[in-house]
Every structure is written in structure tokens, then in C-alpha cells.
Amino acid sequence: MSRTRTALALGMAVAGALSLASVNATAAPSPLAGSTTVTPAGHSFKATLSGKATLKAGSVTVTCSVSVSTGTVPAAPDNHNAAGPVSSPISPPTYSSCTSSMPGVTPTVTTSGAWSVSMQDGSPITATMTVPAGGLVVKTSGLASCTVTAAPTASANVGGSWTNGAPSSLTFTNASVPVKVTGGFGCPTSATSSTFNAVYLVADSTDPAQQITVGP
Questions:
Q1: Dmax (CA) of the chain
Q2: Does a cis peptide bond (omega within 30 degrees of 0) precede residue 77?
Q3: What pTM was estimated for this model as a whole?
């Protein structure tokens, strides 16, 4: 067999294998989500930042030491989903006492829109915070004037984890968030995503003696 025919045969074999792999990957069924129940049904909760929250875009990191959000567990029976997560609307988290890794630069964080958080029971329990389009904006002043807009074109899901406890906690570790950065010198305008880190303690504000809990 000539070298050309050999190469052609190998190429066709590789293409066929890739096509088969693609078909098999597409045909593979996705695992079904298990049931989730968030209790106490109908209770309000308050999520308070523990430690510091960081949002890093490019070489610039904004760190905030105060952040709060509130919400309500859905009333029964909506606090239970037999085949997936339970979602709750939350207030746009507030962020204050913020600093920037850039010397001489002061950041201000504003939030708006319809935020939500959903819980999926499992090992671990997963949590997803939904940021509405343009729902978080960081503006800096001083030696550099930059604007960082999270979820710039559409709502974005930020993945995290939930731990039941007294109080329970909601953790985001190097969670990816799409961003758009505008501004002049010193602004990380090439960044299209950022990493978010934060731990929130979630307390039952309807009955402080109880805990917000996620189970099957």
C-alpha cells in the first residue's frame, strides 16, 4: 500500500473512531438528580459572610469583609423536589468594607436584580447561586478607574456547596463568574471571567432555635 493510501486509511480510521466516540458520548444518559427537601418550610433566613469574600479578575482582587443576603425557604410542598433542587429567591447580597489589591484604588460594589439560590441534596450537597444579568458591578476610583460587570450579557450560575450545621454554611471556592471589564490604564480589560471565594453562615431568622437544613 502506498504511503498516501496508508495515511488516508489511518485518517479515515481516526475520524471513524472520533465519530463513534462522539455518538456514544451523546447517547450516554445523564444521571438523574435525587430528591431534595429544605426545612423548615416557609422560614426566613439570613446569610452572613464569615471571614472575607474575594472576587479576582485578571491580576486585580477585590476583597470585602461585610456581606449579607436574606431569603425564605419555599412553603410546603414547594420546599420538596422529588427529582432535583429546591430554589429560593434571595435579596441581592450587599458588599461593604471592600479593598483592592491595586495600591491607591478604592472599590465600590453594587448589586441589583432577581438573585436566587438552589440546593441539591447529595454527597456533597451542592448549591447554585444565580446572578442576574448585570446584577453585580464593581467600580474603582483613585489611581485606576475600572468597571467590572458580572454576568454581563445573561444570568450566570455560580457553583458552591452546602453544609448542614448550627448554623449551616454556604461555601464558594474558586467559583467561576463571567465578567466584562472596562476602563483605562491598570484595568484588567482582557479578563472575561473571575473567581469568587466566600463562606456564608445561614441562620433561621424566623426561629433562631432552628437550623436551615437540606436533606433528601
A1: 81
A2: yes
A3: 0.84
